[in-house]
Amino acid sequence: xxxxxxxxxxxxxxxxxxxxxxxxxxxxxxxxxxxxxxxxxxxxxxxxxxxxxxxxxxxxxxxxxxxxxxxxxxxxxxxxxxxxxxxxxxxxxxxxxxxxxxxxxxxx
Length: 108
Hints:
By secondary structure, this protein is α+β, with helices and mostly antiparallel strands. It has one domain (7-89): Cytidine Deaminase, domain 2, CATH 3.40.140.10. 28% of the residues lie in helices and 27% in strands. The protein is built from three helices and four strands. A four-stranded mixed β-sheet has the order 1-3-2-4.
């Protein structure tokens, strides 16, 4: 089993992002280092939800932002460990669309 270690400061920053974006879904990346146990997260990187339709329950990270997030991570000696997005007014569980749209392998 792989562990995702998320410091409270990063959790608080992601939560703030979610609250600010409400009622739209927010999205971003988790930046960290892969360690023996899994991922040690060091920072979050906000992204723009580029979704123009159904933005209350769907998200799309603006494609132009991904290279910037990768550059930010590398500048800090980190990798993209995973992605986050909110589920405003919906249960915190894996919907079928999330599972169908997984495209960045090796991440959380």
